[in-house]
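Q: Could you predict the 3D structure of DUF420 domain-containing protein?
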Amino acid sequence: MQLVSKKRVPLLTAALSIVSLGLVFSAVGGVVPAWLLPRSQTLIDLIPHLNAVISFVAIGVIVGGWRAIRRGDVEVHRRRMLAAFVLFGAFLILYLYRVSLEGPTDFGGPNAVYQFFYLPMLAIHILLAIVCVPLLFYVILLAVSRPIEEIYRSRHRSVGQVAAVLWLISFSLGIVVYGMLYVVY
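A: Sure. Here are the predicted structure tokens for DUF420 domain-containing protein:
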């Protein structure tokens, strides 16, 4: 499945990353006018819980994809990693919808927990999620621009391993953030 030119992978990675991160920063920064979005309070209230489930499922799918490629099952690996990317996209769309309409959720716990645990953990979660965007686009574009035999000679494996680890950490920290915001405090 060769959808893009091999030579354009870095350029397409940069373009997709800039557009994606631009949308994220626009939504978080309040640039997206809330009146443009249809408002469903039921959905808004469900999104944190849906995103926690999506994160949990994505962790399982990523680990399953990693195990599949270690067994040499390229097709299962491909399906699982694409499914994980779709889950990431769904998570992001839901998050951006909610934050565009409601803004970020305030932390309700003690200030000491906020400063010394929650905030650093949230910062690492967000930083890893931002770093993952170009890495994920890059490995996906490498995969769709080359026949399977050529992927092994590309940087897909080395970049993919880094992306998967960072992705897993980010999703895991996201679940902890959810727990602190909606379960503990």
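Q: Anything worth pointing out?
A: The chain has one domain: 6-184.
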